[in-house]
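hi!! sorry for the late reply, been swamped w classes. u asked for the two structures so here they r. pasted raw, havent cleaned anything up. first the sequence of the first protein and right below it the tokens
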Amino acid sequence: MKNKLLIAILAAVTFGGFGRLLAQAPAPASAPSSSWTITPAVVSQYMLRGVRLGGLSAQPVIEYTEGPLTVGLWNNIPLADRVPGQSNPEIDPYASYTMELAKDLTFQPGFILYLYPAARKKDGFYKMTFEPSVALNYTIEGIKLTPKLYYDTVLKQTLIEGSVAYSVPLKEIGTELAFLGQWGTFKGKDILENSSPATKNWGEYWLAGVTLPFQLDKQSKLSIGWAYTKGRDNFLKTGSAPKSVNTSAVGRGVVTVAYSFSL
């Protein structure tokens, strides 16, 4: 049970997973520079950076864009097959600002505030953590490369992530196939509230996925995605005790269905 609690904390406080990426896809091209986007989404598994947090889950998002500024609110609501020890619900306000450095090159600072209203500190949960990040986005020959650095100030966790994205037009049906690949490595030095000595966690993960969006009208679209993600070399260690394997760092396929409506 203790290991499952640690696993849930680690995964819940890192921002990733195919469901998030799909649900937060850009608004339709016809949307104005200032817009609201509401995206109800459902995922078949809640996988976050190679760690399984649960089964069927609702992950609604509301997002506001004003030119280069993006602010939003992401939520996770478990619907089935909950992982024991996880604190629900999860509510994540986030923001980012995109600055153009050169042709096809942008710099993007941002942050995520992780909130767990029902978290119990006596069980080792933090009620809140804060994770700033910086990213570069470079596009060459239609391929988007994004190295990104995160640091959680509460968990003392550093995470390095790289992603590659590429779209293949499907002109016959008026859409495209959007492919995504991702790899990351992390190390957290204090992932458990009130742990003395501190509990550490480290590991790696990767993801490969594809999304098929359908533009329904000028303001809305339906996106269907599938991805396979896997965690590896994921370990937990408290003080001088021997390290233990994180058994929830697994490989799973995830189906995501998201509907986006822009105002």
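now the second protein. again sequence first, tokens right under
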Amino acid sequence: MKNILAEIVAHKHTEVAARKQLRSTAELEQAPLFGRETLSLCQFLRMPEKTGIIAEFKRRSPSKGLINGNVTVQQVTTAYTRYGASGLSVLTDEKFFGGTSDDLQQARSYNQVPILRKDFIVDEYQIVEAKAIGADVILLIAECLEAAEVKQLSTFAHNLGLEVLLEVHSESQLEKVSEHVHLVGVNNRDLMTFQVDFNRSCELAPKITAGKVKVAESGINDPAAIVTLQKAGFEGFLIGEHFMRQEDPARAFENFVSEMRKLAGR
């Protein structure tokens, strides 16, 4: 199967170079949101009144095509927050996922929970941009970055006051976890083929560096799975397509949380 990730990353380098020509780093640093005090996703994931779920706003994907084109950022993200999401994840990649920076800025204006900028970060410029549009956390993907790049980009983000979620897919990629990676996400979806293997999280959980917040990603579509993952040591659960595939993502999230709390005896 075609290596989708390589295609995305190649395009991202071109896209970032073009954006640098349109808006300088100095201009981004003057944006109103750049100076705001960021929220800690690590802290919000550990709040007992929250769910541990990082709920995603995602219009489309390369593997599934259009997921949901009928809902607004405001409708979906405010419901996620209202029903106990610990954080939000907002896609800002336009070409492959149909997202925009404006989606994240809208989510920021309506919600007081941490927001993850979900994108393919390959350059420090994108991290300055993330801060300027109101993100609290950035995603780094181990599959497409060398260990030295992870260290450089995570340190840069940390110094801007942003938290860093490093996404891994194999045990060997755990070697890329560095000091300023705050959260380690295990992606159950193979980014080369986009196939899902839910057991991957449980296999890698014990091997994640002590002190890092563990996040399970992809393939979580059953509240019972969260109970299993919690027992494996996960504190965060990034759920994207499951809610967005529903006609009413807000109601789907409410029902999911209700069932999850029943299972947990809350």
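hope this helps!! also noticed smth abt the second:
The two ends are 44 Å apart (CA to CA).
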